[in-house]
Amino acid sequence: MILDRRRFLSVAAAAVTAPSLSACGDVTLPADGVPRSDFDEDSTAEQVTDGMDLKGKIAVVTGCTSGIGFETMRVLAKRGCYVIGTGRTLESAQQACSRVQGVTTPVQLELSDFDSVAACADAVRSLNSPVDMLICNAGMRGGERQTVNGIEKHFVVNHLGHFILVYRLLERLYLSWQGRVVVVGSRAAYRSAPPDGIRFDDLGAERDYSAGRAYAHSKLANALFSLELARLLKGTRITSNSLHPGLIDTNIARNESALARGAFGLWTSLAGKSIEQGAATSCYVATSPLLGSTSGQYFEDCNAVIVAGDNHMHDQEQASRLWLLSEELTRDYLVEIRRPDWNEFENGLRKKRD
């Protein structure tokens, strides 16, 4: 009955906000060829990792200071994983890591500052160890229109910052027995993004700006980035998948107006998930043995789905175009992507050079 009630309330809430949704005809269908899990929207991060021993694994979780990022870090560390948790300030990351039982390391990451992103990646690389899971969780939503170097801020923070981070850490993922990139997106990517998809000719959002549309635009970029990354990594042991964590009242809404925060809080209390449930899909995609060869998929409620309808969630042409544009926009912060020379490594650690 709880499940039925949530679905009813979710539909009711969606009806109230229908004018803001541009693709109400979109429906999700099970993805072919991907193992189905026994988990659903009520499952928690602890439940989907129950019985797992992640000792010896290393995960990077961006946005670990609160919400589903913190819960993701907490549960992975509880299962024995060594977690590198990032926050916008080193102090906030340190405070979050100090609240977790297990082995964690705090690192500063301000996604709107590409120098900070590069420094964060270099700090992780300096460990000279594999990265088994890179969970791109941090993000922003709401506020007046702002730009960073002429590009709308949601797009910079939610997409380009993570693009640089993943690019600079790919070598460390190659070192893992089976590296996983997990991109936390949103259902807004197909419900509220511009009908034409990525606005390649208006990345500054100079026309008809709204915070909701800008957020959805950046979340579509997340999904397409993961899709193209999976294509480029085909034939390697690294996978890339994106997901919608669910409707959750987290600190991501801090930039919204008081009225909008109140309305969102009410909506999530009626039809949303708890933070523990919200972190479940991230943890499942990052750790499940069932998904070792699953890549280029989009997940909701711990299962891969195809979004049918008039949207760009699986638009490979736009994904490839977005990748090339992202490389152009961040070129000064990228490194050469190469498979490592295994002769330089011993037991997963780069040998010290004279």
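(ticket continues) Second input and output from the same batch:
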Amino acid sequence: MKRGITGEYKIIYIADELIRAFIPHPLPPHPPLDLDEKRQRLLEHATLALGRLDSITLLLPDPDLFLYAYVRREAVLSSQIEGTQSSLAQLLLFELEEAPGVPLDDVAEVSNYVAALSHGLKRLGEGFPLSNRLLREMHEILLSHGRGSEKSPGEFRRTQNWIGGTRPGNAHFVPPPQEFVEQCMADLERFLHDEGNPYPSLIKAALAHVQFETIHPFLDGNGRLGRLLIAFILHHDGLLSQPLLYLSLYFKQHRQEYYRLLDVVRFEGDWEAWLDFFLEGVELTATNAVETAKRLLSLFQQDEQIIQKHIRAASTALRVFRVLCKRPLVTLNQVCERTGLSFPAASRTMENLENLKIVSEITGQRRNRVFAYNQYLSILSEGTEIL
């Protein structure tokens, strides 16, 4: 449905240039969304896929294992959309503090994302509301060091920003002037908690994401935080017991269509076109996440059987193997800390796992060696290749 422009322009002057900054109308859309039979079917399929994703944690021996891995995969993907050149393996190496040759700014940026996400989860778990204050706290961590650290971490912007182009005068899109940001974000927060909102949480998340990206309330980090907002709304509203739905890969693979549909909402008011795209992405992403979890579970079971069949001290090897299931990159010192094994015992066990081609040493060094659970890392890294 083409409602026409979904906001109003404010004329401002920057460096003697006339700029048309866009101020979005508060949510929900008017007139209401057209949830026809086709759209209801998309919503139903997406909701069912989310239910399957939520129940996958029941299959896993350690649900936190999958969350640990998936959060880091999402951090890499979401940061890649912003132009960061970092792989999943580089992030995991960085977290080990063993990162030779890794582009430090890039991988630190991705690590900040993991920290921001983890902080948000902890706060929600303590009963803190999904709010602008929480978003600012997460933003402060997201930009705590490295690139963007000079761009007012944790604060709504106090200057004009823009999207595309070299200045506001030739930008593709100019968000609201800074004096309107607080009110726009207050309206968005009100929408998130409006008990009279007629739409289910999945649609609420779709609408809120576009609104956040249109307001662009921070000087940097808006894309990453706006994508996180989707998972946090679904988790906060109880659709997911763990925030395991991350759409960054879908947005990365359909980048041009994603940006086009944001403009279609803003300038034509066609929220339904965006909603169709979003719901299809949710179903696809949730289904793929379930398949990934099943593949990991199958891999772990298969490799456990190989260890039991081919290693004499199988019980010791399985203790080391379960460390690798939690962390696909480890040092021998970490294995000792987590299993209680002596360094020689850990080293012998890891050599046995190398001989079975379950792990490989990736530094080529004689000291401070790092071992990778290759197939686990390979499954997680699918789609994170830098385009």
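Agent notes: Residues 13 and 19 are 6 Å apart (CA to CA). The chain is about 60% helix and 5% strand. Closing as not reproducible unless the customer responds.
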